[in-house]
Amino acid sequence: MEQNRRYLLALDSSIKIENFAYPYGFGSLSHKRRLGKVFRSSRGILPGVNSGTVDLQYLRATPLIEVDIDRDGIDHAFDQAVAKNGWLIFYTHDVKTAPSRYGCSPSMLRHALDAASRRKIPILSVAEALRHAGA
After folding, report:
1. Where are the domains of the chain?
2. Among residues of the chain, what percentage have pLDDT more than 70?
3. pTM of the model
4. Per residue in 60-104, pLDDT tens?
5. What SS3 class is residue 87?
6. Which of 42, 25, 31 lies closest to 102, judged by CA?
7. Is 1 exposed, middle or buried (0-12, 13-18, 19+ CB in 10 A)?
8. Is 50 exposed, middle or buried (0-12, 13-18, 19+ CB in 10 A)?
9. What are all long-range contacts of 40-47, with beta carbons under 8 Å and residues at least 24 apart?
10. How far apart are CA 88 and CA 123, in angstroms?
């Protein structure tokens, strides 16, 4: 973590490193306790809506990955967020015409952005969403 922090700050010293993503989504109680002292939040890879009382050290996150979700799945996720008065985290590794097995196409990303816009859901970073929620 410290090596990553130094690397990112060397790129841009104004970066605020407040949020963590568990490698491969693997977290544990001991990780949560340790990371909670360093990061405002951490996310895993358990899909779903963050609503009501949420575990800031294991936020739900939905893959925006071609092999894991389709356009109907994206729409369903947003519909669930609206119904539960919650918020979503989407993650992907790359966005390109021929994405890796962990990426998505520009058209899928555009669909997700349009789906949020149609529902008047703001597009925010995790840090911005937490501030918006008062967390």
Report:
1. 2-133
2. 99
3. 0.87
4. 999 999 999 999 999 999 999 999 999 999 999 999 999 999 999
5. strand
6. 25
7. exposed
8. buried
9. 40/127, 40/130, 40/135, 41/126, 41/130, 41/135, 43/19, 43/89, 43/91, 43/126, 45/91, 47/77
10. 10
- Those residues with Cβ within 8 angstroms of residue 121's Cβ, 6 or more apart along the chain or in another chain: 78, 81, 82, 87
Separation between Cα atoms, residue 102 and residue 3, nearest integer Å = 24
Q: Which residue has the tokens 């919650």?
A: 86
Class of residue 108 by CB neighbours under 10 A (exposed 0-12, middle 13-18, buried 19+): buried
Closest Cα to residue 92, out of 121, 113, 117? 113
**Measured between alpha carbons, how far is 52 from 119 in angstroms, rounded to an integer?**
20
Taking only the tens place, the pLDDT of each residue in 55-67 is 999 999 999 999 9
Q: How many residues does the chain have?
A: 135
pLDDT above 80 for 127: yes
